[in-house]
Structures are given as C-alpha cells and as structure tokens.
Specification:
The protein is an alpha/beta fold. 43% of the residues lie in helices and 8% in strands. The chain has ten helices and five strands, in the order βαβαβαβαβαααααα. A five-stranded parallel β-sheet has the order 1-3-2-4-5. Strand 4, helix 4 and strand 5 form a beta-alpha-beta unit. Helix 2 crosses helix 10 and helix 6 packs across helix 10. The longest helix is centred in the C-terminal third of the chain and has 23 residues. The structure holds zinc ion. Zinc ion (ZN) binds next to helix 2.
Amino acid sequence: MKYLAEMTFVEVQGLGPEALAILPTGAIEAHGPHLPLLTDVIIARGMAASAARALQARGFAEVVVAPPLQITPAAFAKGFAGTLSLEPETATAVLVDAILSLRRAGFSRVVLANAHLDPGHIGSLHEGVRRARETHGIQVTFPDITRKPWALRLSPEFRSGACHAGRFETSIVMAERPDLVRESLRTGLPPNPVSLSKAIKEGKKTFEEAGGPAAYFGFPQEASAEEGRETLGVLGAILADAVVADRDPVKGE
Ligand SMILES: [Zn+2]
C-alpha cells in the first residue's frame, strides 16, 4: 500500500502516467457516546485501502492513497462538543485545490472515498467534482454511496437511513480501530431505528431535531468486527467498479 504522505517527492515524480490517487473524505464529528469523533476518517481510510487492493487486483499497477480531508461540513452534529465544521463553499474550495494538487503531482485520475454522509458535505463534494471536471478537465471518480446503484449493495440498516454511528459504522471502527471503541458503553446502547435520511428529506437540520439526542442512529449493539471487514470489502469493490465504469463508459448510457 502506498500512502502519498509517506512517500518522498522523488518517489512521486517516479510514478507512471497512469497512476491513480484515492482521496479519503471524512469528518471530525460526534458519533454517539461509543465512537470517536474521527469515525468517518477511519472508515474513509479503510475504504480507500480496500479500494487500492481491489484496483491492484484488477491490473491498476499504481494506486496511491492521499491523506484524508478531515475537517468538512458537519452541520447536523454542530451541537455536540468536539465537532468541527466547515461551510460547504469552503469545503468545495479545499476539495478543488486538493484535486488540482494531485493532478499537478501527475495523477491521471482522482477517486473520492467518502464516508461522511452529512447533506451539506455531500453537496460540497458534488460541486467540487463538477468544477474539477468542467473547469479544469480533471478525471474524477466519485461513487456517492447514498445513491443508486451503490447504496443497494450496502446493509439493510444503511439503506433504512438509520446510518450514523449504528451497526454499519460501528462495525467498521471495530474492525479498523478496536482500541477506539468504548465497548462498555456500546453494549448498553438501546436501538434508535429513526431514519436520518428520511428526517433530512423532511427538512430537519440537526441530529437532535432528527431524533438522535445522543448523536447515533441504528443498532450499535449489533455491530461486529467481522461485519466491518465484510463492509470494507464491499466499499472497496464499489470504488473499483466506479473507476472501471468511468474509464470504460458503455456507449449509449
Ligand atoms: Zn459517520
């Protein structure tokens, strides 16, 4: 696995013209009483590493994981201590500059591995990708896992919209960073089956308004490291499939 920030400039100069960069995007945001603020960054990095392995298995020789964008729009969690949040336009500007820098470093394509589902954040990513493509002519792949067809490959809890610090996200943190899961709290948390995505559609603006007074939704008690490893495999395959689809578009679609 190659991590850009661990390479030297000489090694980056030596990459071939087909090298791909995967840019993880997460958040520093409240994730229940049992998971760290870093949760979405941990998930995005795991997703990026899984995608790098999947792409290498499909013949992409040079795949490099860039350092994650960590501070992003997180308006839903603003009321919880420790959450850091950017305005969406600030985040879009940061994303476009990061993509331009990767292009300058010689990468032929930038792939976003996003694990943070705040609507302001997702909107800022789509806008940044649009500008990078249309204004700067850069090839960017961004499979938005909240949309079809990608969402259909994820767990029932995720698809129900009860997908913040619940079984889905907790499982991945248990797989990647078990040392950061507060197990004694996790095992005592009651289920919160409220659909956050439905609440967002109804115009709710915060976790509290949406029915998540402790900043979690779903079923964290049911999480397991094994499910987390399986989910990371699916997320990596989604990114690899999206890269192949963007590289070899089917005519007429
Ligand atoms: Zn999250």
